[in-house]
What we know:
The structure holds two protein chains of two kinds.
Chain A: H1 31-36, H2 55-64, H3 67-75, H4 79-98, H5 103-138, H6 181-185
Chain B: H1 8-13, H2 32-41, H3 44-52, H4 56-75, H5 81-111, H6 115-131
Helix pairs in contact in B: 2-4
Protein name (chain B): LOB domain-containing protein
Organism (chain B): Aegilops tauschii subsp. strangulata
InterPro entries (chain B): LOB
Amino acid sequence: MSTAPASNDxxxxxxxxEEEEGGGGNPRRCAACKYLRRRCGHGCVLAPYFPASRPxxxxxxxxxxxxxxxxxxLQSLPVEERAQAAETMAMExxxxxxxPVYGCAGVINRLQEEILATQCELARTRAQLAIxxxxxxxxxxxxxxxxxxxxxxxxxxxxVAGMQRQxxxxxxxxxxxxxxxxxxxxxxxx
Amino acid sequence: GSxxxxxxxxxxxxxxxxxxxxxxxxxxxxxPxxxxxxxxxxxxxxxxxxLQExxxxxxxxxxxSLVYExxxxxxxPVYGCAGAISYLQQQVSQLQVQLAVAxxxxxxxxxxxxPCLCFCxxxxxxxxxxxx
Lengths: 190, 132
C-alpha cells in the first residue's frame, strides 16, 4: 500500500487565465481558493496540493467531499502524508464523478472480477501445460515413429539393418532445423 | 406530517424528518453509525445532492458504495479505497505475468517437443562442419 493506484485522467487539465475578481489580491491563488473565490493566504491548507494549473481536479474533490471536509481531513494528518491523501481523494472524486452510482467501489468490483477471470484462465493454462508436459514425457525419441525394428537412440549409435537413408524415411518428416533421425543414426556419413 | 421516528440523518442533523426526506429510505434510525460515517467524509449536503442527481432506483446502490468508501477513508485517512485498488491492480499484474509465463512454456514445449532433438541439433552442426 505504498503507492497510489494508476488512474486514467481522461480529460486534459486546462490552464486557466488569472481572474481579476474581488479577493484576488494574491496572484497565485490555488485551485481551491479560485473555485471558492476567496483570498489564498500563505496559510492555505489546500494550496500545496491543489495547484491552480489543475482546476478540474479540485472541482471534483469539492463536488464529492466538500471544501471543509477536505481541509479538515488534510489538517488531521501529519504534513508528510497530506500530499498522498490529497492525491487519493482526487482519484476517488474522479471515480465518483465518472460513476455516480458506484464510484471507486465499482472499480474494486471490476478488479475483483478480473482477478477471478485471470485466475481461471491461469488454472486452465496450467492444466494444458501439464498435459503438454506429460505428453512430452511419454514421447519416446524420434525412433518411436518409424517401424518397431528400430532401436532407441543409444549413446554410441549404431545402424539398424534394413533401415533406409534420408529421403526415404516418410514417417518422421523433417522438422525445420532438426536433423532427420535416420541421418543422425547413419554414422557412415561421418 | 413527519414520520414517527426520524431517520438516522435527521436525528444526527437535528431536524424534522419529513415524508420526502431524501435520506430516510437509506439511513434507518437503527444504524446511526452508517450515516455518521458518510456525513463525516462527504458531508450531508453533498450526499443529498448526489442522491438527488440520481434516479431513485439507483440510490440504494449509491448509498452502499458511499458508505463503503467513507468507511475505507475513515479506516485509512491517507489512502482510503485507493489502497485496496492499488493492491488489487498489483494482483492483476502478477496474475497476468504468471499467465504469460505458462502460455510461453506451452509454446516452447510445442515447438521443442523433446530435448533429445535439441541435442541432435548440436550433432548436426558438428557433422556439417566435418563434411565441409
